[in-house]
Amino acid sequence: MVTMVARILPCLHIPVLAVATWSCFDGECDEPVETTESATAFVQRSIQMTKVGDPDASTGLSGRPLLPCTSDNDTSVAGWTRSGSCDWDASDSGYHEVCVTMSDKFLQDSASQDNNDLSGVVQPGGHWCICAWAFASAVERDPQNIEGLQLVCDSTNSKLREVYLTHINLTSPSGLTYESKAALAKVNQLCPP
Fold first, then answer.
1. 8 A C-beta contact, residue 59 and residue 158
2. Residue 48: how many other CB atoms lie within 10 Å
3. How far apart, in whole angstroms, are the C-alpha atoms of residue 85 and residue 96?
4. Chain centroid to CA 183: how far?
5. Can you tell me the distance from the alpha carbon of 98 to that of 193, in angstroms, rounded to the nearest whole number?
6. Comparing 8-17, 49-58, 112-121, which segment has the lowest mean pLDDT?
7. Contact predicate 29/23, CB 8 Å
């Protein structure tokens, strides 16, 4: 078994981690080896290690294995559990499965209309796993351009389609509701099944 532990190191623009890796077999462990790597590289390596041979591994909207949402230029690690990916988690009632490249328009509208201020964790051009209701809100407010959001198909969890199919409406923190049908249609247009 290989175990990894990471801690964030201060850096100018790219999150860098100190990673300690060691192998254990029958209760005996090697000495840990510490290296540094970008947050994205660590997340990608961690995901690959957990998905090897896992029949329940998450898939993206394309049906291929789910890719990380977080990239090297991001200042925060995305995901409901901050794994770097929009992984499915049954305890996540907001369904943080939609990987987007963030826009200023969406950040402003989501904060002012939905009581959902994300400006402390993601900036325009950064990547984030937004809630299913949040993507639906952008589709409802701006059906053509989805408030400048760019949907990242291979990093958006395929469970999103199931969420939109099983929920007629989704509710934002401000109490506004958004129709799932239009959001599903937009997802299917941008990322054909």
1. yes
2. 11
3. 10
4. 17
5. 15
6. 8-17
7. yes
- Interacting residues of 45 by C-beta distance below 8 A, sequence separation 6+: 4, 37
Average pLDDT for the chain: 81
Structure tokens at 174: 């401000």
How confident is the model over 144-182, as pLDDT tens digits? 999 999 999 999 999 999 999 999 999 999 999 999 999
Q: What is the 3-state secondary structure (H, E, C) of the chain?
A: CEEEEEEEECCCCCCEEEEEEEEEECCEECCCEEEEEEHHHHHHHHHHHHHCCCCCCCEECCCCECCCCCCCCCCCCCCCCCCCCCCCCCCCCCCCCEEEECCHHHHHHHHHHHCCCCCCCCCCCCEEEECHHHHHHHHHHCCCCHHHCEECHHHCECHHHHHHHHCCEEECCCCCEEEHHHHHHHHHHHCCC
Residues in the chain: 193
Looking at the predicted structure, is the pLDDT value of residue 71 above 70? yes
The residue-averaged pLDDT of 10-35 equals 46
Q: Give me 34's structure tokens.
A: 């510490």
How is residue 154 written in tokens?
């291979």
- Per cent of the chain over pLDDT 90 is 65
For residue 127, count CB atoms less than 10 angstroms from its CB and return exposed for 0-12, middle for 13-18, buried for 19 or more: buried
